């Protein structure tokens, strides 16, 4: 059985950190899957990713400071919940999906670099 947090994280607002912490406290790390559930509004993809990275980073920092986890376990948890569990579930041995970009209508590949206005969010490093 797997737990997908996509329906929760972008919709709970300031409780996103608490919901993520509670989920990680009761679900095995190997069963947790990240998703954005951005099927209604495209902005939900960005919001969910930003909330996930921010709150997972803060939670892992707290657990590291409290000696709940060591650095290797925290890194494995971040990778597993962010992509590794989903890759394992679908039978992929890759840590990242293959580059499947196709030329657009004008014959150009889609933009791969964020625009200068994009917000860059990453999990804090331990």
Question: Can you tell me about this structure?
Answer:
- The protein has 126 residues and is mainly α.
- It has a domain of 87 residues.
- It has a two-stranded parallel sheet with strand order 1-2.
- Strand 1, helix 1 and strand 2 form a beta-alpha-beta unit.
- The two termini are 30 Å apart.
Short description:
The protein is mainly alpha-helical and 126 residues long.
Class inferred from helices and paired strands: mainly alpha
Supply Rg: 16 Å
Ranges where pLDDT stays below 50 over 5 or more residues in a row are 96-126
The shape is globular
How confident overall, as mean pLDDT? Answer: 75
Major beta-sheet overview: 2 strands, parallel
The share of residues in extended strands comes to: under 5%
Tally of extended strands?
2
Strand arrangement, largest sheet? 1-2
Helix content: 40-55%
Q: How far apart lie the N and C ends?
A: 30 Å
In DSSP terms (H or I, runs of 4 or more residues), the helix count works out at 3
The SSE order reads EHEHH
Q: What characteristics describe this protein?
A:
126 residues, mainly alpha, two-stranded parallel ribbon, 2 strands, globular, disordered C terminus
